[in-house]
Amino acid sequence: MRVSSFSPVVLALLASVVRAEGDEPAAPSDVLTLTTSSFESSVNPESLILVEFYAPWCGHCKALAPHYEEAATTLKDKNIKLAKVDCVEEGELCQSHGVQGYPTLKVFRNGTPTDYTGPRKADGIVSYMTKQSLPAVSEVKDNHAEFIKADKLVVVAYLASTTDAPAAEFSALAEKHRDDFLFGVVTDKDVAAAAAVNPPALVVYRSFDEPTTEYPLPVSDLKVAEVEDWLKDLAIPIIDEVSGENYGTYANSPKPLAYLFVDPTQEDRQSLIDTIKPIAKKFKSKLNFVWIDAIKFGEHAKALNIPDVKWPAFVIQSMEDQMKYPLDQALGTAEAVVSDWVERFIGGSLQPSLKSEPIPETQDESVYTVVGKEFEKVVFDESKDVFIELYATWCGHCKRLAPIWSQLGDKYAHAKDKVVIAKMEATENDLPPSVPFRVSGFPTIKFKPAGSKDFIDYEGDRSLESLVEFVEANVKNTIPPAPKVETPAEDAQVPLEAEKVVPAAEETHDEL
Asked: Which residues are the signal sequence here (predicted)?
């Protein structure tokens, strides 16, 4: 989820705006409201408490609010507290905790904070904080039936004792993934027998797909890395709805991701999903399958090179190189059609769809405008040094960099046969498969030296001086001096003010 950044300069103004709205008195809440004076006395004694740092005007905070309230009410029975801090009213407190955007959630244990990395929906918050409240491995006895249903995926080791192999390896696995899964250990023979399990064994219980799955390899020789891969695969359903809440699970998987875009208002939505499910089950070892709300995430469909606003639609994306393989929408999404497309993808016979704007008829500016169709021709020209900015039109950092990048182009305009200052709108143009990197944030700035196809990352600040220094340090060609031009003092170019210099942190954007 993206967050709303803030500036301390405008906090006072925002506070007056919020107060002016005249909100009605708040309803009774199970979420504690903390201030500078009450923060330490409320947080430090708690062995576990979740704190949200928010701003009343923040849209993401407003969306989170009902889920946060619901989670607080549910977790109250488990003696886990949720609290919030209004950063408009308590700006210094929020800054002292390193808050740079809204909402920021932190888990505190006796006053020591760690970042909250869980979901933003009520059930996800409850699940995450419940895991945080438990030891990495819980001993399971009479509560076996309840424990194996306590989360979407529960991992239970059935062992002779807590010291027998592979207890140490299992504990290490649980400690590493305590935020992801719920782990338990059974050493009682009667409990194991009632569960129809012969120790030693490792069993996963799920609330979806096959409810019970036993680890297929010898548990006595358990290897953490192998079990990790097994669990990650089991954590992904045969087919599920993808949204901002779970997209990271798929993005972090090495498997390609197959999307079925459907209009959720269509009466046959479920039958469309059911049509894909046998294919998803057949090829689960090769691809992950999801269905997605085509109305809510229509822009993501465009990003995946689906040309028409026509649903359903099917597309496969390689998560490693970001190549996209949309199924021709005229063919429909019948089971046989989709199955054939998947088999051809796995067999390597499909060609990726590469989006490109038209090649410009002229290049009148000092900065060369690159499009997808001619990326290789321009950027891989071994006779030239190429410095390219990959940007997005909507990106604020890119907008601030634009005049500086133009100045950089002007500086080397006399030597275009030696060094090319270039730019490409990366949301409208795909990088070809031959490019050894993908764009994950904007702006992405790369330098390709003459005589090479390797790229050097630019990680300095975005001032003209720093950019010029970087070019001079990395060019392979000899750049001739610029011709001298007599310029009246009153017409001389004025350097950009300091506030135009932007830190090098990337601005990320994800349609999901």
From this structure: 1-22
